[in-house]
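Chapter summary example.
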Amino acid sequence: MRYAVMVPTETGRAADPEWMAEYARHVEACGFESIVAVEHAVVVTDYASRYPYDRSGRMELADTCPIPDPLELLTFLAASTTTLGLATGVLVLPNHHPVVLAKRLATLDRLSGGRLRVAAGVGWMREEVEACGTDFSTRGRRTDESIDVLRALWADSAPAGADFDGEFFSFTGAMSYPKPVRAGGVPLHIGGHSAAAARRAGRRGDGFQPLGLRGEDLAGALTTMRTAAREAGRDPGALEVTLGHAVTLIDQGRAEKLAAAGADRIVLAGSGARDLDRQKDELSACAARLGLKAGL
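The structure predicted for these 296 residues follows.
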């Protein structure tokens, strides 16, 4: 089992360089696999969209909470650490032009020594997606096409370059360097709670991060993912599954239950404490419970 830790955005300290650098170094020292950064390009005041992961329909972050760009934040944290994995969770793919994004992701992956993992989704906040210039109703098709564009630009297509002709994007003879460290490109996992997200993970993803699903709903989503993978001629056993839990509650027993449910990785969310020492103590205690090194 691999254990990742969410950037504690809810503390309001995610854009504080000293706070975040020390936090990430402690995550690394405790033996966690990676640190995960969320994305919202904008939060529209009084949004009408329903947040799907809370009964209230509202996300827990205040509209004015600092939410740094995840790739810029991960670049900063790459320079503050040495081995810690760097991940998004979840990058709203329709907000980005994939040709530009391919270069940004490959550059970060290359400069960090191949430490990047991307969990991407279609986004739930209509107002945000539309502010970024995308028709909300097309975001699923656009996401599928964006994944194909990323993979085309990351592939070794020299000397002719990469060609692509889709509904939203097209190019001929495109050369995008540097390439990611791994031959298959940056690992792309799909985050979401819908059947469409599960199918997308099976058809195009390197993994699936089901959000807000438990019990029969989780089992059904994983079945949908595996079926889609087999229908696409892919090995469903090669796709990683990432589930979530809390830093302060996870223990070996709970981790074993998540493993039995299909998890290969657990992303842990903190308590929201603004005090850095308390955050570090919670991480140390968690690492000790899980047997990650000795817990610091």
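To summarize the output: Residues 242 and 265 are 5 Å apart (CA to CA).
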